[in-house]
Amino acid sequence: MRRPRGGLWSHRDFLKLWTGQSISELGSQISALAIPWLAAVELHAKPLEFAVLGMLGFLPFILFALPAGVWVDRLRRRPILIVGDAARAVLLALIPILWAMHELRMWHLLVIQFLVGIFTVFFDVAYQSYLPSLVERDALVDGNSKLQMTASTATVAGPSIAGALISALTAPYAIVLDAISFAISTAFMIPIRAAEKLPARAEGAVKSKMLPELKEGLAYVVRHPYLRPIAACTGSSNFFGSISFTIALLYLVRTLHLSSFTVGFVFAMFGVGSVVGAVVASRVQRALGVGRAIVFPALLFPLASLQYVLAPTSFAVPVLVAGSLIGGYSQVTYNITQVSLRQAITPQRLQGRMNASMRWIVWGTLPLGQLAGGALATAFSLRAALWVGAIGSCFTFLPVLLSSVRSIREMPEPVAEPSAGEAELAAGILAGPTPPEVAAGAGENAA
Which one-letter DSSP state was computed for residue 404? Predict the structure, then answer.
């Protein structure tokens, strides 16, 4: 693993990964609007059915994220990425095929959404664990910024393109382009030639069963003074944010009476804010320090949910645009810094399980929030559910603000691999390897 001259723009294998993901990210933005639009408009889904559709996309993170982390730490990660993209291409292609045959039903959409979610779990855990083995440690922020930049750019162009495609082709046939994008991403990852070694195990350790390894990864996260508050902040933000976002499209269409193009434009503004966040993330980190670059954007999280309840019926779009811009900026700058911190401080052999445990915690709250959003909207009203999500979002920044995370100035140095004794201790229930910061009796900044 070397960092070529010219930075990551000269890193051929990184560019293959980056190019493939850029294309699939754009395609995913089309399905992100087309699938719920298909359910709401073409299949006439009820609010609870609509919420369940969103929930099933993230339910696999509760059911499969932790086992996925164990497998990602046992296997090479690139083949997992290839299978994940190829499988999602096939599954998404079934939607327009069933529609053309006049056989598509709501239960088909629910099953496909769940299966796509399973492959997304394995892909995402492997994806975040693969980057540290593809580029050097000092290029992690740069690599995450570039990957997030293209993802953010896709959120700018994607919703507007999706809205236009839905109007021109109808939602089912717009999804064809997402299936094609996953196939293209697969083709770009196949020729990656970087040597990838299986993650090394602690010296003297023997191959163990899945449950002890799973517990070790979860313990590392819940005992770590930096990872625990980050997980609490992100998980609670996802929960309350998903209450709002789950029913936001229904609210925009049925209450504010916005067209598909206008809805796509509003969502695209979230992408514009994301692009700005990706561009300035490294500068913000250098100016404020790592900790404050995590805390400051978290303070802005509530605005992404408040935009819906504060938007007046007669003048909704400007308020929605402003909320989307701030929401996109805050989420991306927060994610780039906290993901890079996680990758930097975690031993290579625990990368998969750390990322899986974080995903299980922070994405596991999404289906719960989506289900709560649908239930609240059904029992009361769409607006009442949006208020619950908005008020709850106002307190999600507290875990990082009140923790030692806020005092981190520089990216901490790589941690040493635990000894065989520590690894054996870590196999106990929530008795994982003591983070170096705690073991050394360090202060708020372990760097």
Answer: G
